[in-house]
Amino acid sequence: MGAVIYFTGIIFSLIIMNLIATLLKRYLFKSVPLKQNNPQYKLFKEIPTLKSYPLIGHSYLFFPGAKYKSERLTEAFVDISRTLGPIFRLQLGATDMVVTLNPDDSRTLFQNEGRTPKRPAFAALVHYRTKAFNSVGVVPGNGEEWYKMRKGVTPLLQHQVINPYKKQQQEIAKIFTDYVKLHRGENFVLQDIYSHLLKFTIEAISVVSPGHHFHCLFNDNEETQTIIDASINFMDGLHRTLMEPPLWKIWKTAGYKKLETSHNTIYKILRSHLEDIEKQYHKDPEKLKEMHPYMYSLFSNDQISLEDKIMLAIEIFLGGIDATATTIAFTCYYLSRDRDVQEIARSSLSEGTDFLKACIKETLRLSPTAGGNSRYLINDTIMSGYFVPKETLVLSLHSGLSKDNNIFNEAEKYYPQRFMKDTRENFHRFASLPFGHGPRMCPGKRVAENEMVILLAEVSTVHCVVGNTVINFS
């Protein structure tokens, strides 16, 4: 959900921010120092587009009551592509944005993002964090500051850092299966599986960051509920500040207050535990390295401040809650709809977890937590035969690509076998990128994958079927 909020919110905030700005200078295309009659490509202004209007450009497409809804951008952009083709240009206020549903363009995009990839930021979050903590973090950051902060989370992609957490996460997964058996109601139905999975993901990520086991599943203590409420409110506040005019720059809007209050709540809770970790680091660093390898790597990094370390720990914690719970819930849903696939998942466990990993990849193909990847190009480049100048904002719509029948066989079908070695389909590797790619690839990718595989391996021992909107665990 958090990634979806980013995807829809950033696009809508571009619309709002450009509408309210006084446009002193506006362009339809950028001049390029290339021959105008070059037969190898078409000009930027020739990229297909829809009718636009002065000042508002194509923003009218997403006005209240208009044809498209800003919260359903994938459907909107896929529909537009049916008319204009796999690449098109939208003018949102003063911003020209290129949207592409061509996997070759996706590859080109990542080849032209540079050492410090730039993307639209969470403006309200940047404003709040800069003012309150003088530290932005890695998620909304850009440029050299982002690069410095990114080094603080890169260790999470190293197996020697994340593998030591597997034993604890396996224990948590076993506890969760007992939790499911206890909380499933009449006819073995577990209502609102997502809310239950939030407790699991909080518990599973907490052993990694902030290195404190919160014990959410069977201990309904005040701190646990506070964390759950604050994480939900944080996402809601972030969404509101992205979807409304940036009046928070002038006064604290309701959305900004929600963002600020929830973030501050999480900050206070995690800071207290991180201060304990810092003491452990100074007292016995080797023991901390053994018990909490990521916390050790974070506190041994002398290139970033204590506030930066706290901010990174918060981002890893928050980033490991919502999207992971959502993906597990969807995977349970897809498995519960197909008894054959569910049986393969269960029976294959004796040979390893490769099939479960394929199930997760297939879930993220059909129901990605992020709609796409957007970047400002650092080079002039060619996409789908059109010239696209540097500094142009380009969105590769992976949520559309991943369900394209021209790329995947029976794209709407849940078929994990397409990701297995022996039955793998020959699809474009840049068509489905749920964790992104390159320097800005999700740093929590391997942590999340471990959590999901470990839990699904445990849950697979409990039979489940779907009925309407609930999952029956029997």
From TrEMBL:
Cofactor: heme
Recorded coiled-coil stretches: none
InterPro entries (UniProt xref): CYP11_CYP27_families (IPR050479), Cyt_P450 (IPR001128), Cyt_P450_CS (IPR017972), Cyt_P450_E_grp-I (IPR002401), Cyt_P450_sf (IPR036396)
Gene Ontology MF: a single term: heme binding
UniProt entry keywords in alphabetical sequence: Heme, Iron, Membrane, Metal-binding, Monooxygenase, Oxidoreductase, Transmembrane, Transmembrane helix
Ranges annotated as spanning the membrane: 6-24
Family matches, as SUPFAM superfamilies: Cytochrome P450
Residues reported in the UniProt entry to bind heme: C442
Family: Belongs to the cytochrome P450 family.
The protein's name: Cytochrome P450
Species for this entry: Zophobas morio
